[in-house]
Amino acid sequence: MVLGSRPGHSVRLPPRVRSGPAASVAERTVPWLRVAAAYAWRLIVVGVVVQSVFTVLGRFQLIAVALFLALVITSVLRPLADLLSRRLPRPLSVVIALVGSLLLLFSLLALVGNAVAGESGRLAGEFRGGIHRIELWLQRPPFRLSPGKLSDLQQQVLSYLSAHRANLLNRALSGFGRVVELVTGALLALFSSVFFIHSGERLWGWARDQLLPRDARPVWDRAGRAAWRTFAGYTRGIIIVAATNAVLVGVVLLVLRVPLALPLTLLEFFATFVPLVGSPVALGVATVVALAGRGPLTAAGVLVLIVVIGQLEGHVLHPVVMSWAVRLHPLVVAVSVIAGSIIAGVIGAVVAVPFVSVAWAVLRALRPEPP
Fold it and tell me: Which of 14, 86, 110, 278 is 20 to 30 A off residue 289, Cα-Cα?
């Protein structure tokens, strides 16, 4: 370097772009295809994880269903236990809430059983006359079925029952085994709900502190609490919707003097827990009973009831009651119910919507807050 001259500056040349066969595949791939591939493998991983979770839950279906029922019981009875614990000891409040709800449930079932037993003789005669009316109705336009075809159909049904008597007996025995499983699951759900209602906060705190790293605890604690709020809100909301539907159906069935109005009302209540599908199926059963017991006009009235209650539930009850808990698009609800029924039958259809709601709440809680 010469004195008095300006110091030299290093000049950084731009990177050389490789061309030809040595260029990387990523440089030659269009951007939208790279983005689509990135989303695709992530969706595949999510699908594998979801399928693995459902496979594990399928192996332990009884335990999973029992814990789900325990969470449902907890979401309903926890506010009552908290209210009672202001005046009473916490264990006594839990016992009063559980025993009182069980007594109410058993009293309702006993009332339904007494109603069915008291009307059994009259109902048998009504149904025999109703079947005769259905036969006469099928002989008229537009069906025009001859009496010979109807008698042949009855004969085929009787022949099928006599030919498959052993198979039906085996199914009844397997059904008895399912009853034992249901009783076991109900007892496990009741046993678990005692601890969830009494000390659910401490159980969650213990699981959070023992299973999660220290840095991840605040985020996952927020996600867990959001999941519980969503699940409890959905459960209480669907119970309100089911009770409203049951009251409306019960009043209309009593006004129309449909046989078995009280059992059909109870069926409507429990069927509403399967969104979009359960209520029409229950009202379809009520239509068949009305057709056999009261005739076509009453059955037509029940059909009108199906349309009215479906519109009321879809456009008024669900948006108003569920808005403070979770708001899912009807398309998401329909796809969730169908997918759940494909994976796990009726249980999957019941569990699908709260599962999707909780998953969505957790994802929202895990998102980083904007600065």
Answer: 110
